[in-house]
Write a structure and sequence with these properties.
Strand content: 15-25%
Number of helices: 12
Number of strands: 13
Helix content: 25-40%
Radius of gyration: 20 Å
Order of helices and strands: HEHHEHEHEHEHEEEHHHEEHEEEH
Distance between the termini: 48 Å
Structural class: alpha/beta
Length: 363
């Protein structure tokens, strides 16, 4: 059947997720494994979300609310946005995929930073669309470079802010200049999965540029700060026309009920958000000190992960760290073959990681 499959599909490199703890335990016979590969909230899920899951566990024999009414209502109230401009997805990955399905065909293209979140490229390529990748400048999305690469074929520009895998941000004056110059036929997607971790006052909050009649889309998630990555739920703020089109092509019941209940409860858990940002701040400061002390070069971050140069083949370093019971993200798949990306954990976890890294690099 291969000859009947769309030819462009075979040019797509599949997404490679971080290695799960259970697999490392099984393969290497280790019991104590520290996963620092997937930018999860290592403080854990929102306690309010856990309570909601327990409360509604016996209702899972029913189909979920196909319109995510109560969750969308809560998000609308929290951010003072019209209900109809909010969409919910099975992770923001699904929202990205549906946006590409909505806008793209083989005669169109996207513009994105490189390296950046790989699902932009995969989702566009799945539609047969072109992918224009603009190299980062100082590990940061180059908005001026993106402007130069926009053409009449461009339909979506993806701006990961903070950028994954570098943790850097684009700032308000840069975004304002970009939006003033970008042509009207371009949908600008601000992917803000990590925005709650940002403490730089110059951060360009995408909601400042969102309007129901505009072309700016803002994506956020419950996977990171709220600790609900395992439930796969994200949300987006879409202008009227885009939201209408989005809802025409999304799957019915695309978000399960457990995820909806947990996310609605987590949205009220300000204490967990504060605890998570403080947990991240403490871990980041300690990790910076340890990396400076050990002489490693790294990219200062506004997210809950750090990209660092190990000066060696990242795959070899990754495999060596597995034997020390530490899982990180090798940089080859991220566009940085001599870097690794490490999630910021507890202070003890950060110390353990640096000790393991020094050990494997001197072997």
């Amino acid at each position: 059947m291969k000859k009947y499959i769309q030819k462009h599909i075979f040019n797509i490199q599949p997404y490679q997720p971080g290695k799960p703890v259970q697999e490392v335990q099984r393969e290497l016979g280790l019991r104590d494994v520290l996963k620092l590969a997937s930018n999860e909230n290592l403080l854990g899920p929102s306690p309010r979300a856990l309570d909601a899951l327990r409360e509604h566990a016996e209702e899972l024999n029913y189909y979920p609310d196909g319109g995510c009414y109560y969750l969308r209502k809560k998000i609308a109230e929290k951010f003072s946005v019209t209900f109809d401009n909010i969409v919910i997805g099975n992770g923001t990955d699904e929202i990205i995929r549906i946006l590409c399905h909505t806008f793209l065909d083989p005669d169109t293209e996207i513009v994105m930073g490189s390296p950046s979140f790989v699902m932009y490229r995969i989702s566009a390529a799945a539609m047969g669309a072109g992918v224009v990748e603009v190299p980062l400048r100082d590990h940061t999305i180059d908005l001026d470079g993106m402007l130069e690469r926009i053409s009449g074929r461009t339909r979506i520009v993806f701006i990961s802010n903070p950028n994954n895998p570098t943790g850097t941000i684009v700032k308000r004056n840069e975004v304002k200049n970009f939006l003033n110059k970008a042509p009207d036929h371009v949908c600008v997607v601000f992917d803000e999965a990590y925005f709650e971790y940002v403490d730089d006052p110059e951060f360009a909050d995408g909601m400042k540029y969102f309007t129901p009649e505009g072309r700016a889309v803002v994506l956020r998630t419950f996977s990171k700060i709220y600790g609900l990555a395992g439930l796969r739920i994200g949300y987006g703020f879409l202008p009227d026309d885009i939201a209408d089109a989005f809802n025409r092509v999304r799957n019915p019941f695309n978000v399960n009920q457990a995820a909806q209940e947990a996310a609605a409860a987590a949205l009220d858990d300000d204490e967990h958000v504060q605890n998570s940002t403080e947990f991240n701040r403490r871990g980041r400061e300690l990790l910076y000190r340890e990396l400076h002390r050990a002489g490693f070069d790294f990219v200062p971050t506004q997210a809950n992960f750090v990209l660092m140069n190990v000066g060696a083949d990242s795959e070899k370093v990754f495999r060596a760290l597995l034997h020390e019971g530490v899982i990180v993200r090798p940089g080859r798949f991220l566009g940085y073959p001599q870097h690794i990306r490490v999630t910021i954990g507890s202070e003890d976890a950060c110390v353990r990681f640096v000790m393991a890294l020094k050990k494997v690099l001197v072997k």
